[in-house]
Write a structure and sequence with these properties.
Layout (H helix, E strand, L loop, with lengths): L11 E4 L8 E5 L10 H7 L5 E4 L8 H15 L5 E6 L2 H11 L4 E7 L9 H10 L7 E5 L4 H14 L5 H23 L7 E5 L16 H34 L5 H23 L30 H4 L1 H9 L1
Parallel strand pairs: 2-3, 2-4, 4-5, 5-6, 6-7
Antiparallel strand pairs: 1-3
Helix pairs in contact: 1-7, 2-3, 5-6
Organism: Fusarium torulosum
Protein name: AB hydrolase-1 domain-containing protein
GO cellular component, one term: membrane
């Protein structure tokens, strides 16, 4: 049975001014939550950035269907060609599917307490890890303390017993430790999405990181993250143009008329020498030295057109950029 969703335009809210220098920020809320959870952050960012708050509303809609509707809306509204995705909890599933559909348009990601969901296809998940789908685009993974409530209960029981000698408490601690290690493993696994990643652990708040800090608004956690993404992308763009300008000004020079004439004379002499050699060939002694495959000269690379695009015109520049 096919699923239908209401007009998504009624489920989104745009906050902030248009900023052509920065991608549109899209917030994905968790299960049982709404985009209202992101409003404190969106209001704070609105002075400099544009934020899209997306309310899925229907809890039963399949992630793939919901993401398709969101992409249709973004294409028709033409809000921005690039996006920064911020997801919390189950919202990470939708953000990862968005990334799968439009990897070239995602400028960076912030994943807050995500990774434990099972809704995303395991093959898609592993392929994204294997291919490092974000490449060098900034990625930040934020982990809270999912078991903070359980640990508090455990500490109360220890205080009541006066020691940890109780077998029940020992088993409880072993389970908590094992669960905590698995949670950390799942969170850190997401760092494989990008070579340019950052891991943040906030042990004094629970799963609801974006609203669980009584001493600080969500922006204290996420604003440095967004700043990290912005600076990284700006640095990548700056580095590219610096390399391009240096290459085009220092490595490529037009020959002077005198140099052109000298080159013509050299070419004429080479042709004359080649003609004489063909008219009176002399038998050369056969070489007895075997040439190893590793010692063979590297064949000259052929490009379709040297004027096709910068990547064809200056391939070594783009190779350096990809290595970085």
């Amino acid at each position: 049975m096919s699923q239908t969703t209401p007009n998504i335009a009624s489920n989104v809210r745009l906050v902030g001014k248009v900023n052509d220098d920065y991608p549109l920020i899209i917030c994905f809320h968790g299960s049982g939550d709404s985009c209202a959870s992101w409003e404190p952050l969106a209001d704070l960012l609105s002075a400099s950035y544009r934020v899209l708050l997306w309310d899925r509303q229907d809890p039963d809609v399949r992630p793939g269907v919901a993401v398709s509707k969101l992409l249709e809306y973004l294409d028709s509204a033409q809000l921005s060609p690039n996006f920064v995705l911020i997801a919390h909890s189950y919202g990470g599933t939708f953000a990862r599917l968005f990334l799968e559909r439009r990897p070239q348009q995602v400028a960076g990601m912030v994943l807050v307490e995500t990774g434990q969901e099972t809704a995303i296809d395991s093959q898609i998940e592993q392929r994204q890890y294997d291919n490092q789908i974000l490449a060098n685009k900034p990625l930040v993974v934020i982990r809270g303390n999912t078991l903070i409530g359980k640990w508090q209960e455990y500490n109360k029981e220890i205080a009541a017993w006066g020691s940890v000698s109780n077998p029940s408490l020992q088993i409880q601690k072993q389970l908590l430790d094992a669960t905590d290690r698995e949670d950390e493993r799942l969170k850190k696994a997401q760092l494989q999405l990008s070579r340019n990643n950052k891991y943040v652990h906030i042990p004094d708040c629970g799963h609801g990181v974006i609203g669980a800090r009584p001493d600080a608004p969500p922006s204290v956690v996420l604003l440095p993250t967004l700043s990290f993404i912005y600076k990284q992308r700006q640095q990548q763009i700056k580095s590219f143009f610096t390399l391009y300008e240096n290459h085009s000004t220092s490595s490529i020079t037009m020959p002077s008329p005198k140099e052109k004439q000298q080159e013509v004379q050299k070419e004429s002499k080479r042709e004359e020498t080649s003609t004489k050699a063909e008219e009176s060939p002399s038998k050369q002694p056969e070489s007895t030295t075997d040439v190893k495959e590793d010692d063979a000269p590297e064949p000259e690379r052929k490009y379709a057109s040297k004027e096709c695009c910068p990547a064809c015109k200056y391939p070594e520049l783009f190779e350096k950029q990809s290595e970085n």
